[in-house]
Structure formats: structure tokens, C-alpha cells
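Researcher: I'm preparing a figure for a lab meeting and need a structural model of a single chain. I don't have an experimental structure, so a prediction will have to do for now. The sequence is pasted below. Please return the structure as C-alpha cells so I can convert it later.
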Amino acid sequence: MIQIGEYNTLTILRDTEPGLFLGDNEENEILLPNRYVPETFKIGDQIEVFTYLDNEERPVAITDKPYIKRNDFALLRCNQVTKFGAFLDWGLVKELFCPFKEQAFKMKAGGWYLVHCYLDEESERLVASSKTNRFLDNKELTVEQYEEVDLIVSHPSDIGMNVIVNNCHLGLVFKDEIYKDISVGDRLKGIVKKIRSGNKLDISLSQIGYRNIEPNAQFVLTELEDNNGFLPLNDKSSPEDIKDAMQMSKKSFKKAIGSLYKERQIEIKEDGIYLK
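Model: Understood. Here is the structure written out cell by cell.
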């Protein structure tokens, strides 16, 4: 099946006056207009194309690559606003339409907006929405703690920056975890630092590689996070106190906090250890 708004690898069926007709293995056909026809080709060759509806609402294939595809997110520039809605530059001849009802804030020509692209079932057209949160779902997570994830910076909040995680979940980077300038639409790598109640995702931008921390260090880190960033233990604590609180030997505890200290995750003071 030829998927609108996606890249499709199709077979060149025949050469006609308006262009090449391409087909899939289900006998569906679509036109590749002359302006996109490669200089050299053979009937039977396969070609990768992007498919959408042209200005006359006809399915068409092109070889241009848009800035966004179906079910994806991207930062796009608004070219114009009409009585129908906003029209965004997504790198193609026909602009991407964003209805007024899909605008989180009223768009203005020249402005840049993070949007989600989806297929409108009624019109069968690709449209954009800046109400990005409604396309994210944290009910069933596909990520785990300490997993490296792909991020798109979404929008700021009073306590940090909201991010789109792996194109499907909503996460938050707290202000004290942001050590560099980031802007809406930036694509970054991050780590799932913690999964809180309600499947809320705390994300770290630090590339410390949580998965490489030894298991006891992970346990100490989690205990610190669950106790407001402080534990009344250090390398001078008695083996009994460490065993009672952490269920590990003093040797294992010292190795764990040594690893965290080396990674600059904690501070070690006389009254205990503090999460940085």
C-alpha cells in the first residue's frame, strides 16, 4: 500500500507524457511528475519517493525530501496566515496547512513553531498541529530507567524544559540539569534519569552513560533521588550503619560512591553524601 506522508520504495511501471507511473506490490499506482523524473532510469527500477496530495488534491510522488513527515515532529517556519489558517514551509512546493483549531497559540507569518504532522481522516490531507502534547502518551512506556533516548525540545515550563522522548513520550529536563543553551526544536540525546509516579519521565542531558555505572552505584543514586538528594552516610560510616541503610558491605558502598564522585554526581561531606 502506498502510504501518504511517508517515504515509499516503488517500482517504475511506465513512462508517460506527464511523468513516470510508479506502483507497489498491491497494484496501486501513483504519478511521479516530470520535474522529479531522474535523468536516467529503466522500467522496472525501484525508486524511493515521498507521497502527498498536490495543489489539486491528487496523490503524487516526489523525490524532494520534506522537513517533516507523517507522525513526526519538526520546527517549521510560518510563511503566511489566511482566513483558513496558517501555511508552513516544510521544504515542498505545496505548503503544509495548520488549521486555527490546531494552533496552541495564534501563528504569525515569519514565526517558527514546533508542530506534529498527521493525516486528517476527513480530508485525507497532511496537516500540522502545534498542540504537540496530544500526540504523546505516557500510559504505556517504551523506555526504561538509564536508557539513552532521542529528544526534541518542546516547550519551557516553570521548572525546566519539556522534551519529546523517542517521538512518543513527554519528558522533563529540570533547570538544574540544563548546562547549555537549548531551544525549542533542538534534537538531542538524553538519559532517562528517573520514572516517577504516573509514568512521568525525568530526563538528563548529561552523557555520563548511566547504563555503564556499576549496579551498587545505580542503587545509591536512586536512594539519593528518593531521599531529597541526601544520605547520612559517607566513607567513614560504620559497616553496620551502611549495611542497615543500604544492604551492602562498606567496601561495596565505598566503591559505589567513589564511582559517583568521580563522575561528579555527588559531593561527599562530613555529615553524608549529597546529590549534585
